[in-house]
Fold this protein.
Amino acid sequence: MDAIQPAPVNINAKDISIGIINRSVPSQKNVAIDEIDKILSIEGRNLDKEGAQNTIASLQNELSKNNIIIGAKIIEVPNLKNTGLALFPEAISWEKISQICKENKVDVVYELSYYDTDAKVDYKVNNVETTNILGLKIPLIEHQATITTLIKTGWRIYSLKNKVILEEFSTQDNVTLSGRGINPVKAIETIIGRKEAVLNSSDKIGKSYAQRILPYNIRVSRDYFVKGNDNFVTAMRRARTGKWDSAAELWAKEVNNSKGEIAGRACYNMAIINEINGNLDTAVEWASKSYSDYNNKLALKYLNILKRRINKNKQLEEQLK
């Protein structure tokens, strides 16, 4: 069944304006370290810079679609210290956040704390054959190069209203491309589109991060009892054809069965049908009865699942107010 989950990040406000700052550009004292990293990682020129720009542009575009947000804009904030590495820098002071919000008329600040690409090249040599103009097969050594680019990003969200960092969140994504050639250099040269692939992935990263302030659906599964007597067997067949309420009619007949085990299973299944129908409080009552009256151990585990889901629903209701 589907279950709606509360947003991972609770902005807890409507009609807010969001500012986005790119803090991923390394400060001057760390530029040398970052340049060495670029050489070792075989990164394209300005790839980190362009990737970060793509990420925040995508974030801005996606946030702007959210109906609880007045607007989202990218803000240039000079002289923010950064490590130049895939590490979170020191948090911005609330005095500075207050200044940014006041000057730009925003309530919440998203910070791209870091954006870093790290490339790894793997070589493989294969023995292959080719045919010359005379039709003769000639053995050759073929070089295959695979470049895996790891994209690392870090995010912070500052809420001025409560002066709290709502989230500090990091992500990692891989982009893998392969090429072949008569030597290692040619193999690498045949890998085209790496920059485009990294930028496309960066676009998806920004879009995905914007979704963290929205509720989302997940699929959950539940076990139910299908054995006990003929009513359970018939109810199973009805459930398999999607006739859950019809199956529940048969389970309801067994909740007071003289055999405790069968009654406990029937109560458990009655909890299942009530969860399916969205009656979580009633589901809790049936699961509690299954465990307390008939010592159904599975019911205790299920009871805890139901209570967690009820708490999640309360969080969701608060977010949607």
Observations:
- The radius of gyration is 29 Å.
- The longest strand covers residues 108-131.
- Strands lie at 2-5, 16-22, 69-75, 108-131, 137-159, 164-181, 216-219.
- Residues 65 and 71 are 9 Å apart (CA to CA).
